[in-house]
Amino acid sequence: MNGISNRIAIEPSVLYFGTPVVLLSTENQDGSFNLAPMSSAWALGQTVVLGLGRDGQTARNLGQRPDLVINLPDPALWPAVERLAPLTGRDPVPPTKAAGCRFEPDKFGAAGLHGEPSHMVRPPRVAECPLQLEARAERVQPDVSGEFVIVEAAVRKVHADPRLVVPGTDHVDPAAWSPLIYNFRHYFGLGPELGHSYRTQAPRKVEAPAVQR
Ligand SMILES: Cc1cc2nc3c(=O)[nH]c(=O)nc-3n(C[C@H](O)[C@H](O)[C@H](O)COP(=O)(O)O)c2cc1C
What we know:
It is an enzyme of class 1 (oxidoreductase). This protein is mainly β. Helices cover 9% and strands 34% of the residues. It contains 3 helices and 14 strands. Bound molecules: flavin mononucleotide (FMN). Flavin mononucleotide (FMN) binds next to strand 3, strand 5, helix 1 and strand 7.
């Protein structure tokens, strides 16, 4: 490389550059529960930061009732996630929602997913999701554009499918867990492992092969 790349300047309509999908369960005003897919989520220690459209039912719920569950679907659940995509828990549907969006009071049923009781929060966990994080929205504030809210959610309890956990430890086995990735509005799973961080604490039976350069 001579220090000059051949990249071209583009103006993509979205910047979803490949982030895990989560399903947020929250409590509606009438005590029923909403479920919404989102992918602008990332962890900072025991806090998960979420970016949500201001006019969605999920943002509205978290502003008033801070309990939530951050459910992580695996790649096989992508059709259920996509069944939720055109639905909102808000009635009437706000004009800012994407074209084709419709109100659905029973998102669990519409997606073919099942709720199971949480331990520390009121909204249910999604039984089909292998990882479920019970959490509480500690801060909900507008973003700079005014179109979104930024939620800082403190995780209070983590539930994992035992097949994902390194036996006798609290470590998720990175070889057993695979997130569902939202990559420029297309769904992907993970490819094979390339290597690991020097900070990993999850013991592995087999070392990953060296990265070929
Ligand atoms: C895979 C996927 C990822 C999404 N990511 C986000 C996101 O990060 N933030 C957001 O506000 N909406 C996101 N959406 C759109 C919401 O799911 C959609 O606006 C939905 O109507 C919200 O439901 P609610 O109004 O009941 O909360 C995503 C949708 C899909 C299918």
